[in-house]
Amino acid sequence: MKNSLIDAGPIIALFDNTDQHHEKVLSFLKEYHGRLTTTWPVLTEACYMLDFNRNTQLDFIDWIIAGGLDVYNLQHWQIGAVRDWFVKYSDLPADLADCTLLEAAESQNIDSIITLDQDFSVYKLNNGKYLNNLIQ
Fold first, then answer.
1. Fewest CB within 10 angstroms: 3, 48, 49, 134, which?
2. Strands (DSSP E) along 1-135, which ranges?
3. Stretch 45-55: mean pLDDT
4. Could you give the CA distance from residue 129 to residue 126 in angstroms, rounded to a whole number?
5. Domain harbouring 82, CATH code
6. Nearest C-alpha neighbor of 94 from the set 121, 60, 67
7. CA-atom Rg of the chain in angstroms
8. How far apart are CA 95 and CA 8, in angstroms?
9. Residue span of the structural domain in which 10 resides
10. Is residue 55 over pLDDT 80?
11. Is the predicted pLDDT of residue 136 greater than 90, yes or no?
């Protein structure tokens, strides 16, 4: 089964039916057959952006509990690698969520992502390859 990373943007769009990308993400995920993996900073960002409605936040959390996605837990020893991603992409708006996704891709050998963020077309993994954005 395919395993892909998912960024905060598509998660927010999925749970916010007023988001301009809601239908696109909903349609994509209905057809996607695989596991979704993300990191705690992505979940934090998504939940924060869904703070316009407590029930929407709870629906999001219930989706996670029901197995909607897997949460990759970075270990303490990986924080240095996350810092390295920050340094490498300091000329871009690389944030903690982005850098943890890059580290998760490296450590879990994941080569695809679901993101609305164009920065992932610039971020290169250590093998010189880009993550394949499945939703473009």
1. 48
2. 2-6, 34-39, 70-72, 112-114, 132-133
3. 96
4. 7
5. 3.40.50.1010
6. 121
7. 14
8. 12
9. 3-133
10. yes
11. no
